[in-house]
Specification:
The complex is a heterodimer. Chain A is of the alpha+beta class. Chain A is built from eight helices and 19 strands. Chain A has two domains: 226 residues, P-loop containing nucleotide triphosphate hydrolases (Rossmann fold, 3-Layer(aba) Sandwich); 110 residues, OB fold (Dihydrolipoamide Acetyltransferase, E2P), CATH 2.40.50. Helix content of chain A is 25%, strand content 34%. In chain A, β7, α5 and β8 form a beta-alpha-beta unit.
Chain lengths: 354, 310
């Protein structure tokens, strides 16, 4: 087990920069998830940590040791690939034992390492099968088993769940998290799915366009997004973003470009007179008589909650309500907004002001 | 059940048109006629001629195994068998080794990759007779560029007798055959190499494999099915080689480079002994069958390729 550190790490393919100076500190035993839209550089960053891509500038340290010049096999890390990368001509047992076979470990030693790993993952009855004879979830487990047998300093996961169906994905999510709690190995996990990030991570690194947008615990990112990108990326359904300005007559009122007044809990001096974006999470509103008038556009009941898309002034607003709603599309309801849970962002820089 | 209950019995032709077997046979007919006329008949005729004393201009009569008995005591025939086996073995091993090496180089990221891949195919694209003529000049006793270069370098005193000395001649024709056969092996194996996902190599290198171990434990096992096909074809082509030898040495010096194919032609057509020539050609069949059987069993899908779906 070891800590991992990225210090001003950069990477260019030819003249095209893909990682533009990344600083991340990962503590020993932490479960860190790199999340961001496709093309943001998260997979490249992981592959640089694994030694599969060169580092153009900056330093990567594992356990305090700079690994820039080390070959993948010298870094003592194990990686689970998106397509699992199981060796098709080897049985499950041989796949898991491959790293030990290369080290010419004895048969007894191999058994001692492979058996418990197979036991943990429920692979014992499948040890003699070939990868082609396994389902997607089983292959996923074998790939993890291969990593566990290594007992490495760091586990790397590159979008490991994206080839699984939705139900299996939820199950594997829990399994990976439980595995980490049991083994306590430092883990770096890449995904584009913010739900995976929120549910599994100790710490999330939100990346966008080769840069780190924000680093923090899941709820920290949810409660205090640093900017518009993080605010829109974390949370499902996404945060509502409405353009407008503070009302010059009363600082605690936000006036949208379409002329609707929305409540604000506090407004710093710097926000006055600027073009702003009003951020409102779908969860932070209720339906109340005499609230802000909103025309119902679409209602999506899911059982435990109801999602509703409404038109407020000219802006579409999504709300999530735990009460049952009897309104029909086209009708007007009153919205009560929890002013203390709203955000104000600078429309130009995207930075959060409140 | 082949018919729905309401279907009426139709005329014989209609029933036949609906029968898959009949339609299948019908569509196979053109190919079958073609194969029978151009493969089965000549093969059968060749086997039959091997049992006769046919000469050019004279129909032979059946003489049983006499031709084969004569061959069994014929030292030139045994020399040709030895030459053919040696030629096939050495040339195939070299083609495999060099072809695999070339394929692995071409599979790396190197500049002008597609240019080199195209260049590699040249020896294969040039008609054999043309390349054989070129080699004939390269191996010329007086004007050989190889001898000339080595003499200029001061490594040898006089020109090398490439095609005049038995062992030199064998080595020379093998070299020419290897040069011609490498592209087929290299390009086919390159195609095979490209089906191996990059992530397997990455996973192996993370698992601690060195370059050699990646080759030994990942590349080679995953390439075996393709190696089996490619090398079977390569062995068949080499074993039946004719053009190269006929242009370069005509089997000489003193039969040192006669292969079974060239000897069969030599005895049968210029020599006029059709029966004996045919017998030599028939004697190649067991070797070829052995090689086909080898590939048949080698090509059986391996256990890891079976079951499940992707």
């Amino acid at each position: 087990m070891a800590s991992v550190e990225f210090a001003d790490v950069r990477k260019s393919f030819g003249t095209h920069p893909v990682i533009k100076g990344v600083d991340i500190k990962i503590e020993d035993g932490e479960f860190v998830i790199l999340v961001g839209p496709s093309g943001c550089g998260k997979s490249t960053l992981l592959r640089m940590l694994a030694g599969l891509e060169n580092i153009s500038a900056g330093e990567i340290k594992i356990g305090g040791q700079v690994v820039n010049g080390l070959a993948p096999k010298e870094r003592d890390i194990a990686m689970v690939f998106q397509n699992y990368a199981l060796y098709p001509h080897m049985t499950v047992a041989d796949n898991m034992a491959f790293s030990l076979t290369l080290k010419r470990a004895s048969k007894a030693e191999i058994d001692k390492r492979v058996k418990p790993a197979a036991e943990i993952l429920g692979l014992t009855p499948l040890l003699d099968r070939f990868p082609r004879q396994l389902s997607g979830g089983q292959r996923q487990r074998v790939a993890m088993g291969r990593a566990i047998v290594r007992d490495p300093q760091v586990f790397l996961f590159d979008e490991p769940l994206s080839n699984l169906d939705a139900k299996l994905r939820v199950a594997m999510r829990a399994e990976i998290k439980e595995l980490h709690q049991r083994l306590k190995t430092t883990t770096v996990y890449v995904t584009h799915d913010q739900i995976e990030a929120m549910t599994m991570a100790d710490k999330i690194v939100v990346m966008h366009d080769g840069l780190v947008e924000q680093i923090g615990a899941p709820l920290e990112l949810y409660d205090q997004p640093a900017n518009l990108f993080v605010a829109s990326f974390i949370g499902s359904p996404a945060m509502n973003m409405i353009k407008g300005k503070l009302d010059p007559s009363s600082a605690l009122k936000f006036k949208t470009d379409n002329g609707v007044e929305l409540p604000v809990a506090k407004a710093p001096e710097s926000a006055k007179g600027r073009a702003l974006v009003y951020g409102l999470r779908p969860e932070h509103m209720t339906i109340a008589e005499g609230g802000i008038p909103a025309e119902v556009v679409v209602i999506e009941p899911t059982g435990s909650e109801t999602q509703m898309i409404m038109r407020v002034g000219g802006d579409l607003v999504t709300g999530v309500f735990h009460q049952r709603i009897s309104a029909r599309p086209g009708e007007t309801v009153g919205l009560s907004i929890h002013a203390e849970a709203t955000y104000l962002f600078d429309a130009e820089t995207g930075k959060r002001l409140v | 059940m082949t018919m729905t209950p309401t279907a009426k019995r139709n005329s014989g032709f209609g029933a036949m048109a609906r029968s898959n077997t009949a339609v299948g046979l019908f569509f196979m007919l053109p190919a079958a006629v073609f194969l029978i006329c151009f493969l089965t008949y000549p093969l059968g005729l060749g086997v039959w001629l091997g049992f006769t004393d046919a000469k050019i201009g004279r129909d032979g009569i059946f003489i049983g195994l006499e031709n084969y008995q004569a061959l069994a005591n014929d030292s030139v025939f045994w020399m040709a068998v030895y030459n053919t086996v040696l030629y096939t073995f050495i040339a195939s091993v070299l083609k495999f080794g060099l072809g695999l090496w070339l394929a692995m180089i071409l599979n790396e990221h190197l500049p002008f990759k597609s240019f080199f891949r195209a260049i590699i195919l040249l020896p294969w694209v040039v008609p054999t007779v043309l390349s054989a003529l070129a080699f004939w000049w390269i191996y010329d006793a007086q004007f050989s560029i190889v001898s000339w270069s080595l003499m200029q370098l001061g490594w040898i005193d006089g020109p090398i007798n490439f095609l005049g000395d038995p062992n030199n001649a064998r080595a020379s024709v093998i070299a020419a055959n290897v040069w011609r056969g490498i592209p087929f092996v290299a390009i086919s194996l390159l195609a095979g190499l490209q089906t191996i996902p990059q992530s397997l190599h990455e996973a192996a290198s993370l698992d601690g494999a060195t370059g050699w171990q990646r080759f030994r434990f990942i590349t080679l096992p995953m390439l075996t099915p393709i190696i089996a096909v490619v090398m079977t074809f390569s062995v068949l082509f080499t074993f039946t080689d004719f053009q190269l030898i006929y242009v370069l040495t005509k089997g000489g010096p003193v039969n040192a480079t006669h292969l079974m194919a060239t000897l069969s032609f030599q005895r049968g057509i210029p020599g006029g002994q059709l029966g004996e020539g045919a017998a030599i050609a028939v004697a190649m069949i067991p070797f070829l069958l052995a090689s086909i059987l080898f590939s048949f069993f080698g090509l059986q899908r391996r256990k890891w390729q079976q079951g499940g779906q992707d």
